[in-house]
Protein: Interleukin 34
Amino acid sequence: MQRGILLFLCTLVLGRTAVVYNKCRITRALNDKLLYDKRLTYMGDYFPKDYKIFVRYEEVLRCQNITSLNNQGITVEELRYLWGIINEEILIKIKKVLPDRHPSMGYIMELQKIFKELLRDDIEIQTEIIQDIMERLSRADDIGPWKSVRPKALLDNCYRVLHALYEEECNLCKPRSEAEDDTLCPPETTPPITNSSSHDQR
Structure:
């Protein structure tokens, strides 16, 4: 009996390890694609100066938004899913404004493939806060409010939040270049994201 229980527990641990390994493999690939030089080239240099696209307010997802939601009891799993869904939609919006032969088209399509793999496993959203955000994101395109944001700024946010949500678990590397220093979440203003299971929504 005890041997059977031990075998079952070992199977659970190995399964969990395999899931984490696969998730981290995907996030490391995403991290490499979102490094500063790539964002600067494909989302900055290849766009007209001050070019902006319209996104919903909820799609401007910064580290402080993630930290605030985490402090309200939202779990890391839900935050990761929200971040993935939002950035998947952002990539669709960026792709829509690109001509077919635009030099950034291939880059956006590669990012879309990575996010598709990252979001392959759906999760059940249990907290009302995240449900409300997801509902606002799913509204018809003609309903605002909207905000105009540079494509690079959107992917800068994506990269910062990636590190906030996955850096510790997946051991993501921090770029050493001075140009990248201000694109990571400042530790003095952004507390570590905790995997809280409570759901205090007051």
User: Anything to note?
Assistant: The longest helix spans residues 2-33. The chain has a mean pLDDT of 82. The CA atoms of residues 67 and 193 lie 7 Å apart.
